[in-house]
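Entry for the shared binder. Reason: the reviewer on the internal report wants the predicted structure included alongside the sequence.
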Amino acid sequence: MSNPVIGYVGLTHLGLVSAIGAASKGFQVVGFDADLGRVDAIRGGRLPIVEPQLDDLAREHAPRLNWSADATALGTCDILYVSTDVPTDDAGRSDLDGIGRSIESVLPRLGPNALLVVLCQVPPGYTRTIKLAANRLYYQVETLIFGRAVERATKPERFILGCATPEQPLPSALATFLGAYSCPILPMRYESAELCKIAINCCLVASVTVANTLAELSEEIGADWAEIAPALRLDRRIGLHSYLAPGLGISGGNLERDLATVLRLSEQVGSDSSLITAFLHNSEYRRDWPLRTLQRHVLAKKPDAMLGILGLSYKENTHSTKNSPALALIAQLPSSRLRIFDPVVPVSAAAHAHTTAAVSALDAAKSVDALLVMTPWPAFREVAPRALAETMHGKVVIDPYRMFDSAEMSEAGLIHFALGRAAESVSCR
């Protein structure tokens, strides 16, 4: 059997990365989006998302990538993935209208034996409602991570596949395609797969919350969480790849959506969800760690302090600002003067009346009384502490992610605040 042709409906983050990843495995790919402007930009090599290595991968495998705004092109596909990104509101509720429209528009385009696979995240029970023969309908859990999407799309840990009859062999086209990735395939009923994605994210949130809670305790009792985390990674019950680095709560939208989904489902069926409520409370509290530190050590003594902000995206290597801790911080500083730099996100995203757009990380520190590192962009590590000290007016650097070495910061005369360790007291000059 020749390789199946793979189609993707929706060319935002999920669909675009997945399509390029499939082409890298040797498959002919049709990438469809109803937005002609987006398709033309992609054809011209102007990808509308930021992901390390993605542009190079797209150029390398361009001969196998057919980008189209014409839905009739999908008729050649043996497997059609619905890969529309799912927006969420501030309460973590998913807007499923776009998925519904995508499915309705492509069902008539399916070949007589083609398979439909829902790749975008949907709540439990959604896939089974789609009007298509059960032996042609699947749900596949997506596990892309902003900033590491290429790695996840080309070297997945496993495929989690929702099926009408998981005990039956997969259709040959789907088995051939998924088998090209050389990873385990876990078939299960639709609802199990849909809930599995949520379960994964709940476990991630639990790990993050433990790290955040104990990192704060470390700050108060003189311990250093960075010394503790390696010991936990060597415990087989926790593991090498555990999420043990403390951060500013959870952000990005996906984890929040899954917690909100659990809360709603638990309320509907009458099960206990107090743990999920605690996760959300802890996340909101941790998000404001930079603000609490800033108020205690800078603004309490100098309310009109000028502040430098490094980073606006919710994490490194992405343009997404969904639930960004940086934007949450800025919103709570309406009268402060800010110098802001992000390698990708424009300063206008801050929607703040008193901002200056810096041209570099070091420029963001020019004459400021305090510098806050709100996104751990790798390039920020390259800024020398002594250069910061010479550029800044004040001494305080609030660095949740430890982008800078504390000893080097101290040698440069700076006061370095980082998650999970105590910092010496500071007086603003």
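Summary line for the report: The chain has three domains: 6-190, 198-286, 288-417.
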